[in-house]
Amino acid sequence: MVENVMHVHGELWTVKELFVLPNEYVYWSIQIVMYPFMTGLVAGAFVLSSLYHVFGVKQLKEIARFSLVFSFALLPVAMMPLLMHLQQPFRGIHVMMTPHFTSAISAFGIVFMAYAFIVASELWFEYRKHFVLTTQALAAQPQRSGFDTLRMHFFKVLTLGAMDISHEAVQKDHNAVKKLASLGIPVACFLHGYAGFIFGSVKANALWMTPLMPVIFICSAVVSGIALCILCYVVTMEIRKFMAKRKISRWSKDPNAPSVEELQSAEQLEIKIVSNYLLYFMIAAITLEILDLIFRGYTQVKSWDILREVIMERDFNKIFIMQYAFGNALPFLLMVLPNRTVRRTTIATVLVMFGVFMMRWNVVIGGQAFSLSFSGFMHYHLPIIPHDWETFREGLGGALLVMATPFVIFYFLNKIFPAFMKEEEAH
Amino acid sequence: MKRRDFMKNTIVAIAGASVPLSALEFIDPREVLAANPEIHWAFLINTYSCVGCGFCVKACKTENDIPFEANASRTWVERYVYTKDDRRYIDSPKSAQYGFTDARIDLGEHLGYQDVDPNNVGKAFFVPKLCNHCATPSCTQVCPVGATYKTDSGPVLVDRSWCIGCGYCIMACPFGARFFHPVLKVVDKCTFCYHRITKGVETACVNACPFGARKMCNIKDINDPVTQIILNERVGVLKDEFGTKPQAFYIGLASEVR
């Protein structure tokens, strides 16, 4: 009690205006914006990979495998923002150990683990043949380096002793992948839909409380997930084309390696199909969001006065300019105008992801922009330059860390589960 | 065995087993007591008596180790000022821990202070607030680890050794009663001074109020004079639309108080 400056959690980035209750602050800040954004990407990437595995959209073969690996890379990152936001991060495990089932968050551990197991086993079935072939190839080498021996043992462990790669065995793998992918779709939707439920069920918050929230979240999740997969796919293909042209990678020196033209045409075909799916889900997401807004404006319940001021005046730029105009309308136009090119689609996906991020921001931060007293407002100032641990993890630094992590994980996962492999190894 | 017989036997077995099994429910003494408790704490606030001295806030912070420097409090007092030309002002500077020593209205960092002409004031009053210790609280419902819970005698408490600090309960509370303790980094809230009332001593705020604006009672004891007021007078609760059944009752509650 000797300290003169003592900040309550949330006080550092909250500016109050008019009458706000003394204990009210923007408690759920940037990391809680990141949480639905990242889980959305996980769910969306998985749904995209399932389009090939379950519905047999053959053209999506390559991007499907890529999105499955990427979905797995994103998985640990869905949990990261939650842990970074906890005031007692070391107690985070309590959610798994003593779940209190009346809480919407308590299911997180179970749903998350179930989903993780599904994705992991699907990956295993998908790549078992690759593991076996790699082990055999390494074992056949007469002189192995120490690193290769290590790799051989590592891949041998990954096969879990299932070395049979006869046609029937691989066919069984294939069936297992299909079953797991179909099981994965509802679980992925549940994982994300219930992130929406976490917000939608907070009855104290006038902006969040709507049964549409889980559905809105699922649709925008699929939108952002597909957009991210397109973007990453294009970037990776550009790198591959670059490598194929200059023959600077091990695979590109292979006589059977795809030529630049082959890569180009494969890329164009995949992007064309996937961006159509992106459009369908975008239409669904925007329809629901606008429906929610119109319904609130039409019914005009008690909270509408303050919500109207937040939506139409204070957050107008964030909602209507940044989210709807730049994040929805513009990419929509870019994709529906005739002669769609890969480049235009890529620009559109960046805008789409920005739009979905702004939607999360406007829900999470916008929901805390007004007081429970309906008589005052709170402004959120994102800490940009951190001056202690708290302003780092709940600031720009923490958000960027969360955004960068899946790419680092993907880099390493790609060594084990090559997202792009030759046809004869894949199925 | 035929299918019909199998179904029959199953129904008989379930019906037969349910009677002795349900007895296990009946004989749990804790559940019996929880269903029919002898004590259920309730709070009564008379807004006509409150003068906004802030002694209750000061007493609460001292009693419960909430730093005075912290801009959060387990209890606070709000001031409502309505001018004759129908302008409405509300404030609660520093949770009113030093009372209302300034006639100007605190509008927050951006807008500063607002002068109000005393001759233009239509009506003005103070409203003390604290956790309502709701009968069906939304905060305990949403805690993912069960660290906050409702006791058999009414008060809603937080287990400081188990709270993970996710802030979901803070979001779920319609009354803004919860905050993060600036030192302990766990959720903190009014406990109805559980450590005092369980020893037969009144809460710090009730004890500190010089005007009797705050009172506490056992709502199960119909002979208690405060219970009599709640039962016989016209009292209201805050935000009943959320269905949490608040247990802090107000005399003279204005509709503008939210």
The secondary-structure class of chain B comes to alpha+beta
Beta strands of chain B, count: 12
End-to-end Cα distance of chain A, whole Å, is 66 Å
Q: Give the strand order of the largest sheet of chain B, numbering strands 1, 2, ... along the chain.
A: 11-1-12
Rg of chain B, nearest Å:
23 Å
- Count of individual helical segments of chain A: 13
Percentage of residues in strands of chain A: under 5%
Average predicted confidence as pLDDT of chain A? 88
What is the total domain count of chain A? Answer: 2
| Helical content class of chain B | 25-40%
Structure at a glance:
Chain A has 427 residues and is mostly helical.
What would your notes on this structure say?
Chain A is 68% helix and 2% strand. Chain A is mainly α. Chain A has 2 domains: 28-201 and 383-427, no CATH class; 230-380, no CATH class. Chain A has a two-stranded antiparallel ribbon. In chain A, 46% of the residues are buried. The mean pLDDT of chain A is 88. With 258 residues, chain B is α+β, with helices and mostly antiparallel strands. Chain B has 2 domains: 3-35; 38-258, 2-Layer Sandwich (Alpha-Beta Plaits), CATH 3.30.70. Helix content of chain B is 26%, strand content 19%. Chain B has 8 helices and 12 strands. In chain B, the strands form 5 sheets. A 3-stranded mixed beta sheet of chain B has the order 11-1-12, with helices on one face. In chain B, β4 (105-106) and β5 (113-114) form a beta hairpin. Chain B is elongated, with a radius of gyration of 23 Å. The termini of chain B are far apart. The interface between A and B is large, with 54 and 57 residues.
